[in-house]
Design brief:
Amidase_domain; 9-stranded mixed β-sheet; binds zinc ion; SH3 type barrels; hydrolase; alpha+beta; 6-stranded mixed β-sheet; about 15% helix; cell wall biogenesis/degradation; Amidase/PGRP_sf; globular
Amino acid sequence: MRLRKPISRLSMRIVLSVFLLFVVALALTIGYTTSQTRAHAASSTSNNQAANQASSTPDASTDSLQAASSLPAGCTNDGKVDYPGAIDCVITPPTTYDCNNDQSPGNCNYTSSDRPTSCSVWVAPNQPLAVTKPCKLNQIVIHDTEGSLASTLSAFMCLGANPNNSSCQQVSAHYVIDLDGKVYQVVRDQDISYHDGNFWSNMHSIGIEHVGYDATGYQWYNSAQYLSSARLVAYLLKKYHLPLDRSHILAHSTVAASTLSTSPNHVDPGPYWLWDYYFHLISQQGAPLNSVALPHTITLHPRNNQALHGPKGPYGQVGTSADYNFFKLYTGPSTASGLIPAQDTSDPTDVSYNVEPGISYHYVNKVQDPAGTGDTMYQIWYGEEDQVHNDTPSYLAAAKLVWLAVPPGDGVDGTQRPEPDIFHTASLVKMKGENIQIYSRPTTDSRYVIGGSTDGATFFSGYTLIEDDTSSNLWYEINYNHRQAWVPASEVVGA
Ligand SMILES: [Zn+2]
């Protein structure tokens, strides 16, 4: 759940209060006309809770985080869950937690729906729900909790203790996986949980939390937890007919914030999550790996992350800081040229100047690093947040050519187009036009612009979809920067 830049509880409450006042005022003056403006399941919700839960990151060596030894309060082993074997912590009753219930408090924390058949979202008191039909599940989003199982579940079940408690946060996830691999279900698959701060993404995804801390993830994420998560994800991929790739199984850190100006981005599960090892485990459960290597693309597979590496032991003995696996970006064709603008290079979870494993980027040029590191430098188009040190930053990311350093053996250079198959939906897209905008959601709405691109910039697209509630508005998901963003078909041509 963790944010890149923690914000104080007080300031987030002020932001939330102002936001709610704004929404209420808006409702009173013009009424609600879209499913994306709501006092309940607001698009800002889970960012706010995540900010609070991100207020501290204890060092693992001094923290006493342990797997739960008994069933947490509010959880039972009754089997009334979507995933066989999960412990039932599904939050109920709807009058307390469900934002589609007029009686629920304003800080309710999930939206009941009938996914993938439809999503139904509260609009205003005594008004019909806004229905999106179908409401396909496109993504599985991977998180970490930044706290223990008990603290995470108590945050998700906060209203149960006191429905009038205004400090309960609008946060939830479908599943939580403890350090010992036990799976706890909190929200039904068919319902919308508030796990990633981007309401479109929440509508179309399943959120899975892993107990641990991202900044010291190598001390937490362990073999029992990875294997248990892999089994759950393999089950979900089969159930919802999704491919095993990084376009459909996302890090929270690659889900774009709704708008960069109002919502800080999230950084979990962080640079120590072993993506290739994890995907290897998922594929062992019978979900075929969808590996795509289009011409002139570089796909990142660090050796310290690959299938046979994995954490060696149980919790407490799982890895070292050498497991850091983000790839850095430079201003020129040399590692001596300096990094692109970075927010805080002393923070291992900083995502302003790097990219994650498993992600593919189109490259324009490549050279051997003249600084003698042995790295290959790939020139890629990247949405750079070049205002990170400005007192009044624009927050928009501008597509620029930057240089990605890839050590020997850590990347796959695509040379030929793979044979098409049922899951082969990837392509390269070239931006066209005078005023190209990059969106955090595939929705025709100027509120969700997170950056811009120049004519001719080329990006790797993992898949396409038709905009909700339309029959023909085609959108491309693209690997834009550390985030996976969206562009409409009207702005691109095939590359
Ligand atoms: Zn998260």
